[in-house]
Each structure stands twice: as structure tokens, then as C-alpha cells.
């Protein structure tokens, strides 16, 4: 079963799964709703793994009741059924939980979320860690995705990666708009192909827990703009930093990959330049 199946990561993941997939996404009327997914998971014994990727992912969402219902309560309902039925549960966490914590973020650090979306993800992680302690035989893996980019971000709007936004601007206007100070904002950008490979490997991880999914290299938004400008011959233009993002915008993310490496899984990763070239070729 894949929730968020019509989304960026979910749709790419399904392309790589061998065999039938039970798809859940309220945005697609041809797929199961969350309530239908719960019933399906509880009543039939043919599901061998749950990839829970569905969530409200907007970092500007402020409705805490809505976020709690979708990002926490529904997730825990799925998880409880998986524990009861001994089904591996792989879910999407987020590097947003690290908030303003700089350096290489590792899974043992205390969360410091700076927006409501990140708070919901941090809360789910805490619940999951408690579930793992209580149910040591359950296979539960949280994947803290860093900044994922690739060729299927068209539906994400303002939540799309800078790679997608800059590419669209370059092709449509010949200009790339970047915020003032973009040379000081760093992200660990990871290509969707590497994210899918890591996610598919998660059911075979040796231990339950939360794992970073990033490259271990931080690059600035300005770097991204320059790479795309070079590939598309676009002009880079600075614009004022938006008021609604002030105080809610991480300055630096970079994955510490020690835990995933010690777990025996080493992922060959596309660098930013190669990943951008591959994305440009597919858009």
C-alpha cells in the first residue's frame, strides 16, 4: 500500500514497485480515500508493506487541527494496524524537524521545528519512537527526507523545490528569481531517484528507527540558480525575501549519514549538477 500515491515521491515510488499496489490519495478520485485505506488494510491480508507518504506538506499551513488529523492521527491509525498485523511500516518524516539547528543534522538531535508542518512531523516521530520501544518486534522505519527534487513536482506549487521553480522560470521567462541572501541559505538536495532507492530498501533495514535520507552535502539556493542559469542561458534576478516566510525558513540543512551507513546501506547518489541535468532532460 502506498499513501500519497498521486504525489511526487509516491508516484515515482510506484513506478519502481514490482507487483500490485494498493494506492491511497484523496486528491485522486480513482484511488482510496484515507478512511477506505484503513478499512482495506484492516480487512484483507494481502498487503505486505505500507509506504506512508501522504501528508499535508505545506510549510505555511497554520491549521493545527487539520495538520494533527492528517499528519499525526491518520498516520498512527495506519501504524497500529501494521503493528497488529505484522506489516512493515515505512513512513515519510522530514528534515524540517531539525529547524534552525545547523551543521550536519543527525537523528539523535532534539527537534527544533519552526513551522506547524514541521511540528506535526516531529510529533509523529516521537509517537513512533515510543511505539518502537513498546513493540520491539515491529518493523517501523521513518525516513527523514531532506530536499527532494526531480521531474514530477509540477503539482506542488509553492512547495516545489528550488530546482523545479527555477527551471520553470528559466524556460518560461528567461529569468530566475532568487530571494535576497540566497547565498546564505543552504539545503541538502537529493534527487528523486536516490530517494526512491532508499525508500524501497527500507523494509530490509536491520533495525527499526528514524533515518536521514540526504546526500550529506549542503548547497546554497544561489548555487542551484547558477547551475540552472548556465544550462538554460537564463538571467538571475534578486527579489526581496517574502515577509510571510521570515522566521519560518530553515537556513541550513545537511544530512549526517552515519546511521544509515552503519546500518549497512550505502546509496550511490547523484550530485546536484548531475541531478539537475537529469531533471532538465525529463521536464
Largest beta-sheet characterization: 6 strands, parallel
Helix share bin: 25-40%
- Termini separation (Å)? 28 Å
Tell me the name of the CATH class of one domain: Alpha Beta
Instruction: Report low-confidence residues grouped into runs of 5 or more.
Output: none
Summarize model confidence as the mean pLDDT: 93
Tally of contiguous helical segments: 9
H/E order of the elements? Answer: EHEHEHEHEEHEEEHEEHEHH
List the helices and strands and how they pair.
Elements (H helix, E strand, L loop, with lengths): L1 E2 L4 H9 L6 E2 L9 H10 L6 E3 L11 H22 L3 E6 L21 H19 L5 E6 L1 E3 L12 H12 L1 E5 L6 E2 L1 E3 H10 L7 E5 L5 E2 H12 L2 E5 L18 H5 L9 H11 L1
Written overview of the protein:
- The protein is an alpha/beta fold and 283 residues long.
- The protein has a domain at 2-149 and 189-216 and 254-269: NAD(P)-binding Rossmann-like Domain (Rossmann fold).
- The protein has nine helices and twelve strands.
- β3, α3 (64-85) and β4 (89-94) form a beta-alpha-beta unit.
- α3 (64-85) runs parallel beside α4.
